[in-house]
Amino acid sequence: MRPPLHPMPMPQRLRAALAARPWPGRASLGLADLASLALAAALVPNAPAGVSAAPAMPRVVEVPSRPAFIKPPGGSERPARPGQILAASTLLRTQKPGRIQVLLANGRSFRLGGDAVARLGPDGVDLENGQIIAWVNPGSKGTTRLRIRTRVATASIVGTTVFIDATPDTVKVFSWEGHVSVATSSGVTFELHSGQQVVFEQGAWQAPRRLSQEEATVRRRTSLLLNGFETPMVTLPVIERELGLSPLAAPAAAPVAPASPPAR
What we know:
Layout: H1 12-20, H2 31-43, E1 59-65, E2 68-71, E3 78-79, E4 91-94, E5 99-103, E6 109-120, E7 124-135, E8 146-149, E9 153-157, E10 161-166, E11 170-177, E12 180-184, E13 189-192, E14 196-201, E15 204-205, E16 209-210, H3 213-222, H4 236-243
Helix pairs in contact: 1-2
């Protein structure tokens, strides 16, 4: 007689993910959500205590403001949510004031904002429009370059932080810290270092220049991609050290009104 079959226990990570999801009702769980969660549970390895392991596939880390969307290849566009698994060639889109942060399978990270449209490529991101900041964690293993492609140039980084702003008329590439190689479609390559920027406008590239201390300070204080995220950006202290910038002060806590005396 064949032994009775017993259901396979659900992995602990999948149970935790299902319990934590803020959907209105469990009956509304779709097949796409189940597939994403099951894939995440099956493919993401256990990391040592205190260490965040890179996912086996890219995933959404944070969506601090909306509208922000993802569109899987062959699928329909849907709102971006933390924890979503992103297949190759997934299209990411934000509308002001929407922003999104993504962790790639190789441990590299990027944030999108503004009216951005970008697609996940085999070794980086194809940016069609909008703003992106991408970085490689200091001390991360491997020498795989993270490449951000635009219509007129490809920016490559190994252990640095790059910012790109692409519009229909201009493309700005800025090295927040470290070395950024910018290979243009015209065959010219620019090598940027901390605080340097190169701009394409009116059909031509300008010579790279270093931002002044005042310009860098204003950009640090007002950047929508450096600020307003709960997930830490591990290269931010490096940026501040490289450019001689002071860390932003934490917002002051709202004053607490004194308790009213008890009624007599």
